[in-house]
TrEMBL record:
Gene Ontology molecular function, alphabetical: serine-type endopeptidase activity
Domain Peptidase S54 rhomboid residue range list: 77-214
Protein family (similarity comment): Belongs to the peptidase S54 family.
Compartment(s): Membrane
Membrane protein topology class: Multi-pass membrane protein
Domain DUF6576: 269-302
Gene Ontology biological process terms, A to Z: proteolysis
GO cellular component annotations of the record: membrane
Cited PANTHER family: PRESENILIN-ASSOCIATED RHOMBOID-LIKE PROTEIN, MITOCHONDRIAL (PTHR43731:SF14), RHOMBOID PROTEASE (PTHR43731)
Protein's recorded name: Membrane associated serine protease, rhomboid family
Listed Gene3D superfamilies: Rhomboid-like (1.20.1540.10)
Top-rank lineage group of the source organism: Bacteria
Length: 303
């Protein structure tokens, strides 16, 4: 006897495995690219601490870890160039920064790799803070918190890598990424010095950082080197001398190749890769088949 039946318009089977909400959430989270997953996790943890700590804890966290562009604080307390990106002023501030990071950053990380993505993200955030400090005397100085500068750099990176990819906004027709990001930057320029409480200079500095770093990548610069160096310092990467002294070396598989910002991955035909990237630029990342997404992801995944 067939144990299957219909319920609520959908076919149900009594032997079908059901995943719990927590299991599905964990699986979805672990399915994120590694750099984005880590950045979102740290931001979420810090935000929960801010919320649970209330005004007392925030009264210490924000003045201590937020970016202060006034002289000489930004020079004598350089850690603020990074820590300010993990603090947020409210739930919507946190939510939209993380959503934009996920929506636009996913394709960037899957294309460039987690190390290069990390350098672009933090590089854009740092340059945004530096620009804010450099022009603080003109527009006035105020404590800055939030990942918006770094996220703006990722938006610019996406627009440069996939200029014609459609961006879908509520009640708007599809907008090509290059026009959407150009409009985003134009708004920041128009509202400079408006006193609306938004760090426009940080956004513009982040956009400039994203542009310069993507240009450097396109010119052949290996942006993953800073992250590789940190991995080496923290013992996560073996030094080349220790590998040379190994008594037994494994022969290299002819079907494997080495790329700048990933571990050893299966070699992919260049023409096929170009076709995938062209498809993304015309129709967007979601137009790819599962097989095409797998092949693209193999360029950036770790071994």
């Amino acid at each position: 006897m067939n144990n299957s039946y219909f319920q609520g318009g959908g076919r149900m089977r009594d032997n079908m495995p059901y995943d719990s909400f927590g299991g599905a959430l964990k699986r979805g989270f672990m399915g994120m690219p590694v750099a984005i997953r880590t950045i979102i996790l740290i931001n979420a943890v810090v935000f929960v601490i801010q919320m649970l700590g209330g005004q007392t804890l925030n009264g210490w966290l924000v003045p201590t870890l937020g970016f202060d562009p006034s002289f000489p604080t930004f020079l004598t307390q350089p850690w603020r160039l990074v820590t300010y990106m993990f603090l947020h002023g409210g739930f919507l501030h946190f939510l939209f920064n993380m959503l934009w990071l996920w929506w636009m950053g996913r394709s960037v990380e899957e294309t460039l790799g987690p190390r290069t993505f990390t350098v672009i993200y933090f590089g854009a955030g740092i340059l945004g803070a530096v620009l804010d400090a450099a022009i603080a005397m003109v527009f006035g100085s105020a404590l800055v918190i939030g990942a918006s500068g770094a996220v703006t750099g990722i938006l610019v990176a996406f627009a440069m890598l996939f200029p014609t990819a459609p961006i879908m906004l509520f009640l708007f027709p599809p907008i090509q990424a290059r026009f959407f990001v150009a409009g985003w930057i134009a708004i920041d320029i128009l509202f400079l010095g408006s006193g609306d409480g938004v760090a426009r200079l940080v956004h513009l500095g982040g956009a400039l950082g994203g542009y310069l770093l993507i240009k450097a990548h396109q010119d052949g610069k290996d942006l993953s080197l800073p992250v590789r160096y940190l991995e080496y310092l923290f013992g996560r990467m073996k030094s080349s001398t220790s590998s040379k002294s190994s008594s037994k070396k494994r022969p290299r598989n002819k079907n494997m190749s080495i790329v700048q910002d990933a571990e050893i991955v299966e070699e992919i035909d260049q023409d096929e890769l170009d076709a995938i990237l062209e498809k993304i630029s015309k129709k967007g990342y979601d137009s790819l088949t599962k097989e095409e997404k797998r092949k693209l992801f193999e360029l950036s995944k770790k071994q």
